[in-house]
Structure formats: structure tokens, C-alpha cells
Amino acid sequence: MSSSLPGSVCDSPEAAVDALEALYDEAVEAERAALDRFIAGGAPPDAAERAAFRYPALTLRWQPEGPPPQTRRAWAKLQSPGDYITTITQPAAFRRYLLEQLRPLMAEYGATVSVSPSDREIPYPYVLEGGDELARGGVSAAALARHFPVPMLSAVGDEVADGLWRFRESEPLPLSLFDAARVDYSLRRLQHYTGTDWRDLRPWILLTNYQRYIGQFVDWALEELARPDSPYDRLVLPGGGAVTRGQDQASALASVAEAPWQRFQMPAYHLHRADGADGITIVNIGVGPSNAKTITDHLAVTRPHCWLMIGHCGGLRQSQEIGDYVLAHGYLRRDRILDDLLPPEIPVPALAEVQVALQQAAAAVTGEAGAALKRRLRTGTVVSYDDRNWELRFTQERLRINLSRAIAVDMESGTLAAQGYRLRVPYGTLLCVSDKPLHGEIKLPGAATAFYQRAVSEHLAIGIATFDILREQLTALHSRKLRAFDEPPFR
Hints:
Blueprint: E1 8-10, H1 13-39, H2 47-50, E2 54-62, E3 82-87, H3 95-107, E4 112-121, H4 141-147, E5 173-174, H5 180-194, E6 204-208, H6 211-226, E7 232-236, E8 242-244, H7 249-258, E9 268-273, E10 279-284, H8 289-299, E11 306-315, E12 325-334, H9 352-366, H10 370-376, E13 377-385, H11 394-404, E14 406-410, H12 413-423, E15 427-435, H13 445-470, H14 474-477
Parallel strand pairs: 3-5, 6-10, 6-11, 11-15, 12-13, 13-14
Antiparallel strand pairs: 1-4, 2-3, 2-4, 7-8, 7-9, 9-10, 11-14, 12-15
Helix pairs in contact: 5-8, 6-13, 8-12, 9-13
């Protein structure tokens, strides 16, 4: 390509991210100033002023002069010469991620990077931090929509992730799975569902459908914050409160008790590490595949390192006992929630790195190995239904369960794995058998309570230990199994 790159060519990844931050901050400040003026009764922005309300664009050009470098890395790779482009939001918050992607692309491939204003306006709700700024002037949403950019669903989609994007000779290739408008849309939804600022989300995510796991996580987190040598330094609570290292126990417990988690559909807790870039998030996603898809659609834009499902399941084999674990190696997807986006005949592979780490963590936490561990930890297929009362149609489902050789049944695991595969987020599932519906051991209130008290703490500890193992193997974790042949360069 002979045409010049748009905007400013950057001589380093750091300079590129600095330029993105400067352009984004200028656009947000200009739009906020116009909003403040209009709400106070002043003039709306004219066309020239609105031209400043735009996301920055990041453009990468690769014109190889020889064979591409050899790398086993699954991301930050270039396969086709040409221009790549995406719009960027919140570059300061995503700085570490952006640098991780740009450094190998510039150093190893010799790609040229430029930053410029894009032609995509920033919708006005996305420049408001508190969410209640508009209430001051009593200005209607209709009035704002006449003069300020608004979110347009036609501009928000997963065409790149779902393989629906179509190459055109005259247009650049996508640089990332999600553009700025798609990311901003999900960042605001995350705050709505979880009750926490999206900036507090950590890259290691536990997903559960039982509040008891949340209670155990909080107890463990408070113990960590009380340990002088712990790597963790802050626990963020639903509603915006936090417990910090060194806080006295009575005050910490009061903060946890006062957190209004009941207000939020999928409350989340975030345990930060002192390095500021790692840590663990746990989200109670509730019950069912619809919730599982909803939250992971939004979590994916933060580009987490891994999400794990830790929840309960019905054991389908006579040899299983209440409290045994199921490590999913495959999924029979009867959830139906993703059939149009990822048809059931598309295999969702187990990720070796996650599977091995889960098994190693289970051995370490339980203290069992060999045959003893195999008696408690069974690998196999999990069937995920969209109908909690699937037992009432067992006559129709019996053959499919038999043919799949499924060993457990739940409602979320298949969806979460399929979403991880679809949106390129490493995933895994470790379930605990809470009942055996085919063998007369149904979940009754008394037995369920005893089971919960005994099993949840150990199960949670296995999930946390798995993340400790995976932290040391990030390059391998972001597997090539998740990448398409025409994958965008950014992870």
C-alpha cells in the first residue's frame, strides 16, 4: 500500500498508547464540557464542535520484506500484509493490555503504528462517570439525542468474533475482536449487573451460581488481607465499598455486611493484588444459560486470562458420590442459547493447560493422588440444559444422555465453555456433585445444607489454586485452539 498512514506515526508502543490516551481524553473533555453547557441552559454543540467527540483510532501497517517470524504465541501475530484498524476506548485503563499486544507486533514484525481521530462518535452516556449528572438540569433524553451522539445498536456487534466480518479489498482488516463502541456498551452493562466499577474486574474470574461460594470467597479474602505476606491488598465489594489490608477485623466484617449485594442481579467481588494488575474476581451469575451468556458477553471485552465455572451438578453415574468432583472434558450443549451463533455441532474443545491445572490443584488441595484422587475426581462430558426440570422429560432425554456418555448435568457449564471458545477467553469447568437424580439421591433441604457446609470451601480452594498455577504459563494458556485462521492480531 502506497498511501500514508492516518494521523501520527508512533515510534514505540508506549508512544502509541500515550497518543491514544491524549486523543481520548481530549474527546471526552470536549463532550463533557458541551453537555455541562447544554444542561445549564446553554447552546447545543454545532457540527464543528461535535467533530471533536470521536474515539481515537489505532492503525497498524505490515509490509513484510521476508518470511514472518516464527512464534508459538497464539496472539500478537500477523498473517496477512496490509493495514489493520480498530477504535479504542479507555486506553489508560487498558494500557497494559495494549502494550502487551503492540510490543511484539512492532518489535518482531516491524509493523508501523499510527494514531488518529476516527469517524466514530462517542455516545454521550459513555463520557459520564457518575451516571446522575444529567439529573441536575432536568434535560430530557430526547433533547440530548437531538444534539449529542447516542448509543446505536447498529454500531455494536460481534461480527468479527462470530466470523461474520467480510473482507473488502479497499478496507483495512480488523485489529481486534471488539471496537470501542462494543467495549463501552459492555463496560456499562458490567457495572449494572455486578454492582461494581468495571475497572475493578480482575483477569482471573470465578463464575458460580450459589451465593455460598461468595461467602466462602469473602472469608478467604479477609484471611488473605490479614496475612502480612499475602500478595493481595484490597477486596472491592458490590456497591463500591472495599476492605483494605490492615483494616481491623470488626470494621472489615461491618463493610462486608453493609455491602448491598442484593440490589444487583449478578453481584461481584474483586480481590486485588498489590501489583495492581492481577487478582481474582468472583461473580454469582445466578441460574441458567441466559445469565451465563449475558455476563460473559460483557466480561469478554475486558480480555480476561481465564474464567472457571465452579458450581454444583447432578451426578449421572451410580459410582459417583455426593461431594465428588466432575472435571468437564466435553459438553453436550442442550442450553439452546447459542445455537444460532455457535451451532451445537461445532465442537468446544477442552483446553489442556486448564484441565491439567485443575487436576493439579485438586490433588494439592485434597491431598489425594492416584487412585484415591480418581475416585473423587471424574473426567467426562457434562450436559447443560436450559430446563431445570429436565428430569420431568427423562424419557425423551435418556437416549441422548446415554449416547453422549455424560457423567453430570447442570445449566451453565456448556454455555460458559461455548462463550469462552466463541469470544477467545480460556475456560474450564470443575463441578461438585450435589445430588444424583437418576439414582434416587435428590437434593432435599437437610441433605443439601450439610453438603454445602462440607464441600464449598474445598471446591473454592481448588479454583483459586488453579489460577495460581495458570499465572505462570500465560503464553501457553492463550491457546491456538481458540484462534481462527483469519484471526485479528490482538488477543
